[in-house]
Amino acid sequence: MGEGLLHTLLNETFTAFTQAQAQAQPRLHVWEVGHISYMGYGIARVHGLYEVQAEELIRFPGGLTGMAFNLDEKEVGVIFLGDSRHLRAGDEARRLHRVLDVPVGEGMLGRVLDPTGRPLDGRGPIPAIERWPVERPVTPIMDRAPVTVPLQTGIKAVDALIPVGRGQRELILGDRQTGKTAVALDTILNQADKNVLCVYCAIGQRSSAVAGVIADLRERGAMAYTVVVVAAGEDPPGLEFIAPYAATTIAEYFMEQGRDVLIVYDDLTRHAWAYRELSLLLRRPPGREAFPGDIFYLHARLLERSTRLRPELGGGSLTALPIVETEAQNVSAYIPTNIISITDGQIYLSPELYQKGVLPAVDVGRSVSRVGGKTQLPAYRAVAGDLRLSYSQFEELENFARFGTRLDEATQQAIERGRRVREVLKQPQYEPLPVAEQIAVLLAVTEGLFDELPVEEIGPVSQRVREEVVRKETAVCRRIERGETLSDADRETLLKRIKGTILTSDE
Hints:
Helix content is 40%, strand content 18%. By secondary structure, the chain is of the alpha/beta class.
């Protein structure tokens, strides 16, 4: 019985194999393969890939990938997306028949990754839902909604004088070491209870500096709603070039789910430098300051992806805070003027204010928000409506008073009031303030309640004012945060509470 059963099984297996062989249709897999003809730092020129598409991925030995960047008649210029020191001229290059993409999904929150989607935080693979192209078309005009909802930064000088709305593109610029990243980080920290997701994109920064930013975000609980995309300064220029586009794709996934998203590009000056380096290595014609002719389009197609969607499309928004570094306060340089013309306003940080200890060092006179008060809560307009103009006038009067000219009493009062406004606008890093607390101290200074106090006491007294208002006027605070108009009764209630706090402080 055993031998007969074995013989039957062998016959059946042979018959099944014969039938499968007869039904099998041979399939031909065609691979288009080229060879490296020239190697440079971060780039290569490849011969033999005549059908390759723009931005298509190309695989090289060792698992390294590159992106088709230049499509010339006889060769393809490729930028590497990793370490290429092991490659040599003559090595094989193979088309992958797909464009550069990045993983997207809820699993990205709290993770640190490079622009190709590789995790950098040592927590294993990223659970992505799908992969989206790094370069995506911008939202059509008819699909966009007006920018009317405020994005609270938690910084008094910004929320009161240079308001930012959800869907806006607000540039942060200034010389190095003036606190540009600090303003962006405070804005991220302030979104903890605002239902706004954040993407921080580090481009060309030192790894130690990026590690410090990540540590600050993690220590203060912000990584729970933040994605960090890192292309460090020691990475190839190809990774620095694609980093902001990859970060924007990740942010767009959440926006198209109906979420509000904030993205920080830190910074686009280094992004422009990386693009210039790649373009010169690939022998693209240089223009002004050796940048290629399409340098404006480089950032325009990036920042135009930030918008607010119409309600029928989910109503999500993508707010961009690009950072640009200036040299010797030259805001009329090539890259700063390009990005100023693309964005909806700028927050300028002054080195003089920074050196004087006025932090954040926001220069109100040179900063602007082109969306304006439409995105402000009504309480700000009621309390700080004329504050920007009066503060700018104070700065001019203060400069004029240095010449020793005798001033009339009204001018002296304006200067003394302005000094107290400046003291109120000072704010330590990592301490973003809720709306109600900002309104309380702004109301106190604009109504002249701090005029009799010495300037050095403004800080401690304003802190006590904030604490008292939040603790004892909770109903008024809730109405302010809900976006209700500050009524006369609420104003009187706040003023009475502030006056009582100031009198108690004097005693």
